[in-house]
Amino acid sequence: MIVDAHQHFWNLDKVAYPWLKPEHGVIYRTFEAPELEPLLRDAGVDKTVIVQAMDSIEDTEYMLETAAQYDWVAGVVGWVPLDRPSEAYRLLQQFTRNRYFKGVRHLIHEEADPDWIVRPEVIEGLKVLASFGMTFDVVAVFPNHLKHVPFLAAHVPNLNMVIDHLAKPPIREKGWEPWASQLAEAAAYPNVYAKISGLNTASDPVHWTALDWKRYIDFARTHFTSERLMFGSDWPVANLAGDYQTVIEATMSVLADYSEEERQAILGGTADRFYRLSE
C-alpha cells in the first residue's frame, strides 16, 4: 500500500487563505479531490492524508467533508488554536469524534514570532493535543523552527510529531550544516518522525533531479530509520517545481537502493502507523 501522507486541497470560494496570493502563480486557484484522483491512480497511490492549509476551523471542516466523500482519503490533519488550550480542548472534543481526524498542524512559519511554538501557552496546547492521542505536524522551516523540535519532544514526550518536508533542507544552495546537526538532534527522540516531502520546492525549481535529494534523504534514513520516515507529495504546492508524477518518480528513484522492507515503511507503513489510518 502506498500512502501519500502530505497533500492539500483548498477552495478559494469556501475558505479564506490569506497567505495564498497571485504571486504564487500556478497554485493560486482552487484545488480539489477530483483533480487529484486520476493522478493518484496513475501513480499507484492507494491512500492520502489531507493536511491543513489554513489555521481555521473552516479549513478543517472543509477537509473533513472532503474526506467523507472519497474512499482514498484515509485521514485529515486539521487545526485547533494551540495557543488557547481551553478552546483547543473544546474543539478537539468535537473533531476527534470524526474518524478521519488524525492530528493537528499550525502554520508556524506564518507567525511573526519565530519562537511561537515554544511559548508556554502553546506547550500547554500541545499537551492537550497529546491527551487526545492526536499527532502534531511540525512546519519546521529551516533555519527558524527545526531547532525547537528537541525542546518540544522533551517537554511533551507522549506527543508523536512529524517534521514536514525534512524541515526544507538547503538543497538549492547545496548546503548542509547546521541543518544536518539539528535534524539528527531531533531524530534522537523516539516520538519524532519526518516526511520525505516538499523537496522539489526546496531545490532549483527548474533543473532539480532526484540526485539533488539523495544525500538529504539518506541522511534522514540513517538517523530516523525507515520506521520513522514517510512519503508525501505536498501536492498542489509541488506544482511550483514539477508535478505529482515527477515527485513520485524522483522519490522512487532515491529509494531504489533501499531494501523492500524499508521502501514499504517509507511509502506507506510508517504513515499508516503514525496516523492510525487503519483504525
Automatic annotation (TrEMBL):
Q: Which InterPro entries match?
A: Amidohydro-rel, Metal_Hydrolase, Metallo-dep_Lactonases
Gene3D superfamilies per the UniProt record, alphabetical: Metal-dependent hydrolases
Q: What SUPFAM superfamilies does its record include?
A: Metallo-dependent hydrolases
Protein name from the UniProt record = Amidohydrolase family protein
Q: PANTHER family in the record, alphabetically?
A: AMIDOHYDROLASE, AMIDOHYDROLASE-RELATED DOMAIN-CONTAINING PROTEIN
The taxonomy runs:
Bacteria, Bacillati, Bacillota, Bacilli, Bacillales
List residues of the Amidohydrolase-related domain. 3-277
The UniProt similarity line reads:
Belongs to the metallo-dependent hydrolases superfamily.
